[in-house]
Amino acid sequence: MNKHLLALYALIVVSILGLIIFIRSYPISDFDLFVTRVIQEQRAWDPTILMRSISIFGDAVIAPFPVVIAALLFYLSHRRREARFTLAVVFPSLCNFAIKLLINRPRPTLSSVKVFSEFAATGFPSGHVVHYVVFFGFLLAVMFVDKGISLFWRVLVGILSAFLIFTVSISRIYLGAHWATDVIGGYLFGFVYLGILLTYYLRDPKFKRLQDG
Asked: Which one of 54, 111, 134, 212 is most buried, by most CB atoms within 10 A?
């Protein structure tokens, strides 16, 4: 593995450990409260419907459908390897659930911020963010490297995937589902999982030139 990539992974692991220590020391920090209130108190327009729409792809009942549909489309377009890797995004979600149980950080409550929906599971790291980074991040990578896909679909899926990866964090904080440190943790864990997935995906000979370049 490239030494620069190893250094990046090491930095992410250290960041995750530091973040865990921070949230254990400060379950509700001034930083988390500040970020949530800034996002929730904007008054230009009511973004609630948009925020719910952004988050819907990570809801437990809805999340499997986009994954299965994407895998099926890859399979039908003779991209069976992509179909298998798409289905593999389920495993990071299972790992993330175990980490949530281990860390056991409470979610925001009405006594601290606005909460639009109640959630039974614990908060750290954000499962939505992890799922979006891994699933939509993999789709974004495929759109970038697979020149056999129509340019229209590559651009459309790529832009949509990037948009969702970025905005899901804002959505989760706005809805009172997570603290800012939860979504930061979600990004860190998500990029670790995505990096592992892409390491194996890009081993295919047709992508060898990307690794050598």
From this structure: 134
Percent of the chain as helix, strand, coil, to the nearest 5: 70, 0, 30
Domain residue ranges in the chain: 3-212
**pLDDT tens, position by position, 194-211:** 999 998 898 866 655 444
- Please state the rounded mean pLDDT for residues 131-140: 97
43 exposed, middle or buried (CB, 10 Å; 0-12, 13-18, 19+)? exposed
Residue 144 carries which DSSP code?
A: H
CA dihedral 7, 13, 19, 25 (to 10 degrees): -120
Q: Which CATH code for domain 3-212?
A: 1.20.144
pLDDT at 212: 43
